[in-house]
């Protein structure tokens, strides 16, 4: 019976493999009998050496030059093995041809390259895991070629070449960093063989750390020289990932290093003079927390290299809650104290934003929106066109035999280790994380679809290093993984044989001149039927591995390739072929190259609408950090204290020019900058430019008393002040340049906006003051107010008090064209509300179709007649789509305002929907268990362990008796930003383009920027106030939407096309008219950004 069961299981497994894109081939089919077996002992185990289960890599290359790609596996406790590809997925073990290669070292990675330039592929292994430096020596086996019909044979020569590095090396790559025509070597190092110290400490940045990487320069005489220090490779790290690419397109290869544990990742920008500079802080806003393998590739076919880094975030909700106990704001505090960049626990995909005037722009991290951010304990990401449709897909390996992130195990270990059980007892209780690998199809439009079940055999594994190659030369890329304690996966890609002629390809073999025979570092561009593809030729990819040296492009059903261009690495010369047939392999030789005719660094235009004007305004926003999460509502979604800079414009000194006023913070006073021609000069005004007792949340410059000069209205906001009475709002009355402060006739409360307008058409300006949040009572908010102005006398009446919730923005606009301007208000955790102006008597909320269907985390609104139909449309900014939640009408985010402990405090528990263990969408708490326990003892009493908590939905958490204490409930059904097309008071909701869903939209300007007499929209945003589990929203770099008028469409100009980069959390955005109009962007805790509009 048992044998019958095994036969049935094997049949099912084979059937599953047969139906997937990749078919698993057995060892009996391939002849590959390698197995990277690692065995723990009483003295050598995961608690004595944490990297015991970090696996090993695999390398691909044509060792015998027969046109078939061969395979080399690195081994840890076993000897590496090499296999010649004899065709039809048959392989011959030639490990014995590597003289002296045994299992006497712990090899981690394998790198294949023609190191000595003789035309034969050599093999370089990195070594680690030993206290004996001699057993950590990296090894180089030089290919002797085929002699007398035998071979190839290999001779170990690392010491002779002076690259027998004795550090704890995890990976290596050969590349020509100085463009002198030969291959240099970068070695990725990790740690000493001791227990990791993951506590914060001062970084070692002078090259002296034991885990500093190494750079070796090729002397062109068969030896290398260690140039680590002089080249600027100075930062320590627990290296796991290594990627090479010319990210800034200056012709010189740059280096990305993924570092595990506390150490930050590194982006070494090649300075072109033999040195590198770590500029990761300039170009990446944040990084993965425990960075594993990485990859560089062009995922959106724009000709620029994007960057992927892996982490250990589980895919399933219950596994997240079992392995993560929470994230404290103390991480941010320590990052600032020890000068670390922020790190978050998830995979990241950093999207290249192009260039302005040859200067590379910062990346946008969009892994969550693109659907690739959670792939378990992951190791190797590899981008390639696995389905031959013209764009790069993604395969990810994962798994780990001892899941030491399991919180119940961690708690148990602390209780029993050393008391009840020894190390082996504790280790044996650690759960295993053996899961299938992941496959993602690039579907275009900045999205990947999880195709793991359709593409890969559903086989749990501990898979580490991986490589792609066309092993059978049929035109699609096969896939090889080096598994721990199991046979490797040899996966045959069936795309071509199943495509029925709908898939095509082009393979390119590059032949470089000089000693870089494989042309490592070449750039290849392909044009076909209006489509463009780009690749850079570096073989060290993913994790500890080396991929197919033959460049592969998928082409779908395209019949003819218009052209292929190769830019050669050292000379910068180019080769160009035209009118190429598909479904073939071609060779391009550098000997036929010609000098480049132009600088190929960037694509696009320098005819920008905006030009940066540094120094025009000398202002840097400063604000002492206040930690809202350390108050009694520690699970609020984000801080309310981090606001600003708050800016407004108006003629303060009545000289006919608009001046700039900037609100006070908790460290700097209100500031006035008077406009003098094209400059702004700091000026002091009695009673106005003073330090306030609160942060100013909004300002307005307007003549409230009709005396001919402009007054200033300032509302208090933020969250720092302990009592609500501290948040008082004021009118600063202008009396010939001296200002007198008068309290507005409304209660004190944290406010968000002030919107002046003549509500009742009596010739004087009235005021709307929006309430942000009730201090210490989130998600409650105080009442908002309509303040009436009667010839300078401000008052409120019975209809002035407005219960609107948490207001974020508002605009006065006559939406229904009845001659009375209405008030449209955006709100957090709510709908947008339209308050109809009842002929100056009161504001009445309207129930309009579509509005209640779109509850969001609304941030902003602007109005303009974008389609030129005579009524104004609206652009509304939401949270965006680049987050970890599933949000829809069916699966909303919910927020429960409930006092769980009966102590008078609201415990604001937010929830979302995730699949349960059976695949059913279920409502669960968003916060992790330790975060919830810190908020309320209710959760500590309810959940004895993390596993119990991980499986219970919110309906199991709150029983009927508990729900009786529910004050109210809010929800979010969309996080997308929209344009609302107004058709005579009825609205059509249209989502904004994907590029505008990267991040929260916070500030916008409506203006005709390109001179076509149609209003356009300048869009900015980002939000740094959210909890550490969520992290920074920072992918919005500023975008310009040029309206096409009656077509009801827009042309989107990103920074690389508009010339305007708005980096950071934008707190204000203003437009100043003049002969040289300017845009002023106030950036939170940073220098103001100023751009001049270039008139057409």
Give an overview of the whole structure:
It is a single chain. The chain is mostly beta strands and 1096 residues long. The chain contains 16 helices and 75 strands. A hairpin with a 3-residue loop joins strand 36 (540-541) and strand 37 (545-546). The longest helix is centred in the N-terminal third of the chain and has 18 residues, at 2-19. Mean pLDDT is 94; it is low at 1-17.
* Count of β-strands: 75
Number of helices: 16
Spatial shape: globular
- CATH homologous superfamily heading of the largest domain: YVTN repeat-like/Quinoprotein amine dehydrogenase
Gyration radius (Cα, Å) is 31 Å
The major beta sheet can be summarized as: 5 strands, antiparallel
Q: What is the typical, i.e. mean, pLDDT?
A: 94
CATH C-level name of the largest domain = Mainly Beta
Number of domains: 3
CATH fold call of the largest domain? Methylamine Dehydrogenase, Chain H
Classify the beta-strand content into a percent band: 35-45%
Structural class comes to mainly beta
Residues in helix, %: under 10%
How far apart the termini lie comes to 83 Å
From the coordinates shown, what is the CATH architecture of the largest domain?
7 Propeller
Q: Uncertain regions: pLDDT < 50 for 5+ in a row? A: 1-17
Descriptors for this entry?
1096 residues, mainly beta, Methylamine Dehydrogenase, Chain H, 3 domains, five-stranded antiparallel β-sheet, 16 helices, 9% helix, disordered N terminus
């Amino acid at each position: 019976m048992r044998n019958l069961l095994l036969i049935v299981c094997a049949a099912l497994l084979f059937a599953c493999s047969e139906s997937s894109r990749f078919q698993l081939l057995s060892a009996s089919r391939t002849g590959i009998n390698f197995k990277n077996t690692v065995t723990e002992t009483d003295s050598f185990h995961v608690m004595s050496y944490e990297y015991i289960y970090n696996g090993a890599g695999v390398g691909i290359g044509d060792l015998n030059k027969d046109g078939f790609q061969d395979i080399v596996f690195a081994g840890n406790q076993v000897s590496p093995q090499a296999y010649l590809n004899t065709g039809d997925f048959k392989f011959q073990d030639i490990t014995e041809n590597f003289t002296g290669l045994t299992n006497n070292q712990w090899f981690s990675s394998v790198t294949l390259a023609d190191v000595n330039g003789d035309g034969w592929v050599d093999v370089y292994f990195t070594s680690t895991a030993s206290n004996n430096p001699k057993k950590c020596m990296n090894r180089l086996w030089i290919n002797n070629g085929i002699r007398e019909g035998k071979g190839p044979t290999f001779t170990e020569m690392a010491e002779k070449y002076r690259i027998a590095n004795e550090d704890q090396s995890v990976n290596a790559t050969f590349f020509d960093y100085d463009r002198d025509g030969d291959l240099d070597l970068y070695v990725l190092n990790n740690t000493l063989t001791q227990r990791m110290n993951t506590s914060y400490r001062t970084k070692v940045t002078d090259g002296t750390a034991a885990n500093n990487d190494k750079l070796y320069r090729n002397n062109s005489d068969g030896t290398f020289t260690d140039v680590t220090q002089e080249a600027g490779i100075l930062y320590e790290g627990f290296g796991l990932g290594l990627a090479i690419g010319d990210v800034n397109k200056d012709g010189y290869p740059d280096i990305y290093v993924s570092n595990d544990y506390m150490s930050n990742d590194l982006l070494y920008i090649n300075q072109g003079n033999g040195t590198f500079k770590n500029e990761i802080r300039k170009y990446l806003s944040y990084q993965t927390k425990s960075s594993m393998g990485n990859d560089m590739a062009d995922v959106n076919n724009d000709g620029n290299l994007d960057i992927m880094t892996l982490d250990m975030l589980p895919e399933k909700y219950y596994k997240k809650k079992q392995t993560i106990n929470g994230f404290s704001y103390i991480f941010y505090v320590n990052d600032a104290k020890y000068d670390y960049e922020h790190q978050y626990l998830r995979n990241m995909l950093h999207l290249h934003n192009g260039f302005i005037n040859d200067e590379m722009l910062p990346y946008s991290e969009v892994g969550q929106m693109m659907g690739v951010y959670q792939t378990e304990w992951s190791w190797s990401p590899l981008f390639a066109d696995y389905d031959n449709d013209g764009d790069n897909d993604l395969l990810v390996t994962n798994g780990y035999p001892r899941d030491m992130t399991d919180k119940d195990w961690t708690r148990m270990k602390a209780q029993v280790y050393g008391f009840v059980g020894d190390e082996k007892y504790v280790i044996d209780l650690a759960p295993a994380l053996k899961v299938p690998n992941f496959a993602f199809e690039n579907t275009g439009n900045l999205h990947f679809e999880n195709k793991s079940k359709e593409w890969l055999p559903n086989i749990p594994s501990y898979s580490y290093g991986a490589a792609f190659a066309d092993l059978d030369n049929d035109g699609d890329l096969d896939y090889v993984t080096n598994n721990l304690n199991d046979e490797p996966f040899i996966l045959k890609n069936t795309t071509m044989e199943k495509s029925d002629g709908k898939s095509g390809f082009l393979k390119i073999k590059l032949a470089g001149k000089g000693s870089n025979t494989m042309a490592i570092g070449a750039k290849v561009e392909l044009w076909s039927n209006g489509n463009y593809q780009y690749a850079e030729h570096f073989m060290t990819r993913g994790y500890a591995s080396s991929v197919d040296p033959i460049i592969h492009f998928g082409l779908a059903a395209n019949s003819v390739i218009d052209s292929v261009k190769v830019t050669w690495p050292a000379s910068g010369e180019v080769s160009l072929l035209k009118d190429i047939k598909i479904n073939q392999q071609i060779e391009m030789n550098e000997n036929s190259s010609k000098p480049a005719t132009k600088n190929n660094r960037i694509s696009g235009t320098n005819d920008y609408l905006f030009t940066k004007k540094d120094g025009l305004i000398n202002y840097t926003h400063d604000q002492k950090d206040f930690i809202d999460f350390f108050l009694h509502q520690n699970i609020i979604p984000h801080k309310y204290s981090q606001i600003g800079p708050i800016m407004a414009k108006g003629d303060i000194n009545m000289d006919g020019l608009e001046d700039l006023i900037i609100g006070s913070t908790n460290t700097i006073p209100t500031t006035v900058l008077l406009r003098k021609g094209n400059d702004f000069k700091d000026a002091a005004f009695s009673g106005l430019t003073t330090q306030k007792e609160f942060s100013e949340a909004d300002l307005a410059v307007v003549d409230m008393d009709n005396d001919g000069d402009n007054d200033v209205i300032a509302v208090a906001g933020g969250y720092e002040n302990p009592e609500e009475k501290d948040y008082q709002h004021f009118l600063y009355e202008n009396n010939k340049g001296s200002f007198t402060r008068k309290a507005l006739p409304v209660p004190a409360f944290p406010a968000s906006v002030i919107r002046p307008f003549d509500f009742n058409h009596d010739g004087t300006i009235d005021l709307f003051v929006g309430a942000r949040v009730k201090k210490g009572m989130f998600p409650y908010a105080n009442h908002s107010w309509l303040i009436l102005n009667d010839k300078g006398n401000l008052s409120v009446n019975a209809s002035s008090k407005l219960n609107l919730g948490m207001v974020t923005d508002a605009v006065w606009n006559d939406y229904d064209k009845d001659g009375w301007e209405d008030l449209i208000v955006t709100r957090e955790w709510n709908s947008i509300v339209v308050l109809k102006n009842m002929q100056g008597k009161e504001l009445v909320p309207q129930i309009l179709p579509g509005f209640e269907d779109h509850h969001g985390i609304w941030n902003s609104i602007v109005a303009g007649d974008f389609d030129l139909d005579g009524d104004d449309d609206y652009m509304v900014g939401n949270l965006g789509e680049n987050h970890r939640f599933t949000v829809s009408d069916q699966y909303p985010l919910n927020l429960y305002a409930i006092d769980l402990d009966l102590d008078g405090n609201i415990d604001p528990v937010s929830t979302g929907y995730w699949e349960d263990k059976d695949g059913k969408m279920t409502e669960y708490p968003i916060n992790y268990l330790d975060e919830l326990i810190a908020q309320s003892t209710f959760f500590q009493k309810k959940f004895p362990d993390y596993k119990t908590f991980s499986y219970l939905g919110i309906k199991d958490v709150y029983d009927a008796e508990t729900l009786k204490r529910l004050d109210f409930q809010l929800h979010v059904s969309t996080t997308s930003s929209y344009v609302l097309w107004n058709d005579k008071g009825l609205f059509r909701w249209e989502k904004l383009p994907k590029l505008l869903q990267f991040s929260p939209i916070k500030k916008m300007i409506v203006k005709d920027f390109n001179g076509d007499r149609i209003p356009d929209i300048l869009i900015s945003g980002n939000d740094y106030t959210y909890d550490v589990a969520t992290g920074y929203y920072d992918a919005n770099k500023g975008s310009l939407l040029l309206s096409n008028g009656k077509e009801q469409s827009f042309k989107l100009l990103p920074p690389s096309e508009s010339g305007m980069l708005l980096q950071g959390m934008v707190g204000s955005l203003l437009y100043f008219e003049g002969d040289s109009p300017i845009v002023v962007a106030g950036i939170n805790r940073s220098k103001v950004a100023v751009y001049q509009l270039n008139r057409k």
